[in-house]
Write a structure and sequence with these properties.
heterodimer; A: 101 residues; mainly alpha; 81% helix; B: 276 residues; 2 domains; 10 helices; globular; disordered C terminus; translocase (chain A); transmembrane helix (chain A); NADP_transhyd_a_C (chain A); cell membrane (chain A)
Chain lengths: 101, 276
């Protein structure tokens, strides 16, 4: 139990930021018109690909003979890049369609 | 080069501004570009920033990014306009799979000095990322007409029990880290199955809402992974997607005049009982 409290105590700054950002996310989205629901979902999906940074850090720290980490980490980077690049590209295509209307 | 990490702050601001602009019609396209710039700069910083125990391995990193970029570009160009929601679902699933791959590798790096908080965060990232991964693939299958709707009376009870099993295994593993060597793998498999059983009973017509919900989950998995690495961009970007995705999911339900609970538990567009 105290270990959990210690963990929270050591991350007070992070937890504060977390709470503020949660509220920020609520506020940013709360007035979005219905037509933008799908493009916004697609755009924020691309942003959730930020998890790729974890995979990059993992591969950078992997020993060069640790093939399991290198290969699985590289697969993670491939999947994350597809999420980021594909997500932004497909969002752009959707929003292009909006413009013509 | 030692100050390059300051660029993470710029990336965070770009992501926030991009998301804000994405949510109003006249600025949405610029918003997407700004968010993409934020992503790009964050990725560059993560590749070039100084790091303890840096082994390089740049060939793997650039190779993987090149492969992923080509695949992502090709599919987003090729897809029919009507097929975009299912493609978004696949992309979201890949983001979840990325979280899974890093969480399972981190889980096998734990030793006696690892704190409960670190282990708990990693296993939650594994669980939530796994659910987002398989759940998104089922959502894709339903939208593409490859997975038929199926629901039995016990599916909501099964899901509750299975969720309890997932969380129970995680608690057990964090409390007894070295009890069973294969338990992290078992937690992974159980989480993947939960993603399947969670989405399968939900009617195909409700898939856009489910994809938005799974998108929020991927964001939370990214945020948890960010806590594991102490990386602020991952944490803030992930939380931003998690919270805005949650609100967006609720707004999408309201647009259909339903409640989220009704969509998740009600299955099959049982809108007769909805009072949303």
């Amino acid at each position: 139990m105290f270990e959990i409290l210690d963990y929270l105590k050591d991350h007070v700054l992070m937890i504060n930021l977390l709470i503020i950002t949660i509220y920020l996310g609520f506020e940013i989205i709360s007035k979005v018109p219905t037509v933008l629901h799908t493009p916004l979902m697609s755009g924020s999906n691309a942003i959730s690909g930020i998890v790729i940074i974890g995979a990059i850090i993992l591969v950078r720290q992997a020993d060069s003979s640790d093939y399991l980490t290198l290969v699985l980490g590289a697969v993670g980077i491939v999947l994350g890049t597809i999420n980021v690049v594909g997500g932004h590209a497909v969002t752009n295509r959707m929003l292009e369609m909006f413009k013509k209307k | 080069m030692q100050y390059i990490e300051l660029l993470y702050i710029v990336s965070t601001v770009l992501l926030i501004v991009g998301l804000r602009k994405l949510s109003s019609p006249s600025t949405a396209r610029n918003g997407n570009v700004i968010a993409a710039l934020g992503m790009g700069s964050a990725i560059l910083v993560s590749i070039f920033s100084p790091m303890a125990n840096d082994q390089g391995n740049l060939l793997y990193i650039f190779g993987a990014i090149a492969v992923g970029s080509v695949i992502g570009m090709v599919y987003s160009k090729k897809v029919e306009m009507t097929g975009i929601p299912e493609l978004v679902s696949v992309f979201n699933g890949f983001g979840g799979a990325c979280a899974v791959s890093i969480a399972i590798l981190e889980a096998y790096k734990f030793d006696a000095s690892s704190t409960i908080g670190l282990m708990g965060t990693t296993y939650m990232a594994l669980f939530i990322g796994g659910v987002a991964f398989t759940g998104s693939l089922i959502a894709y299958g339903k939208l593409a007409g490859k997975v038929k709707d199926w629901k039995s009376g016990i599916s909501s009870y099964f899901n509750l029990v299975w969720l309890a099993l997932c969380l129970g295994l995680i608690v057990y593993q964090v409390a007894n880290p070295s009890a069973y060597e294969y338990l992290p793998i078992i937690i992974l498999v159980v989480s993947l199955i939960y993603g399947l059983s969670f989405v399968w009973p939900i009617g195909g017509a409700d898939m856009p809402v489910v994809i938005s919900l799974l998108n929020a989950l991927t964001g939370i998995a990214a945020a948890l992974a960010g806590m594991v690495y102490g990386n602020m961009v991952m944490l803030l970007g992930g939380v931003l997607v998690g919270s805005s995705g949650a609100i967006l999911t609720i707004l999408m339900c309201q647009a259909m005049n339903r409640s989220l609970i009704n969509v998740v538990v009600g299955g099959f567009g049982a809108s007769a009982t909805s009072v949303a």
